[in-house]
Amino acid sequence: MEPSEGTHGGGAKKPKAPSASPVAALSDDLLRQILFRLPDMASLANAALAEKRWYAVASDPAVFRRFDSLRRPLLLGFILTDRGDQYFPGRCSNLRFVRATRGYPNLASVAAGADFFFEDLSDDDSDDEEERYSSDVDWRLRGCAGGRLLLSRGYNGLRLAVYDPIARTAVFLHPSTVFHSIHRVRYAISVDEADGSFLVIGVVDFNAAVFSSRSGKWVKFEGDDFIERSGTMDDDWDWSDLDEDDIYEFPGGGIMSRRRFEEQDTIDSIYKIQADGMAAGRFAYWRSDTKKCSYSKPVERILLLDTTTMKWSVIAAPFPPGESYCVADMPEHGGL
């Protein structure tokens, strides 16, 4: 009788090497397709932590962009306006809706039933005497984001509305509770497409306020809570410590500390904002519109609000004054 293997005289049985998991045999392309089918960003983050290879694939900027684009609502179309050179709608502009050309039959029926020209928006719930007896009661389009339209009523903009043209529902706001010169406020709207909550942001002079639909309240930003300033005047500078690069010479004569000049130029650019802002991902931004100004400014500046941190900042556009440009949020690159 032969001795059993692994008992008497026979060598110990070698343990089998662990077989490779089926996932390890997948190509990167197949792994990407699997990741694209995960339900949300949290699931993608968890998958990235499974192993190094998964992390390498999931953290690829191209995968991130594709994953995000697959979960965005489909585009219905565009609203075109003839506002022209108006910085803000002093009159009610003519509007035109252009449907998206994608071949989704259901989208055409949705677009056909939507109120993109806000004709069904209620006009009779105002409690403001000036607005009630004014002949200028037309709604004006001030911005759009996430399927919501931001509208102001009349030339003075005594009332705002955030309007859903598909559901034909609106949330009305009264900016006079936080702004004095409400006819000069420049607005932007930012919408969280995950739950439909929104922020309405207004800027006028060196003040700002943000309305949150989640809290139902306005929050004001004034002074250093808006844009922090050094508070140092030229008379307080120790000029002996400044070299040529620290001093700005005006073309017509006179000097100023460069830091003070750049700070003042930043402040001036905020005061001169004349157009409504726009949303770009988690940012809301307002351009100084140098090319539309009748005077020459050396730098085109952009006022930014990061809606995740609620921090304001001003950046210089990386383009010569007068150039056209747009802004996009690139989260895989850490910002704008």
UniProtKB/TrEMBL annotation:
Positions of region (Disordered): 1-21
Top-rank taxon, per record: Eukaryota
UniProt-listed SUPFAM superfamilies: F-box domain (SSF81383), Galactose oxidase, central domain (SSF50965)
InterPro entries: F-box-like_dom_sf, Gal_Oxase/kelch_b-propeller
Stretches that traverse the bilayer: none
Protein name, per record: F-box domain-containing protein
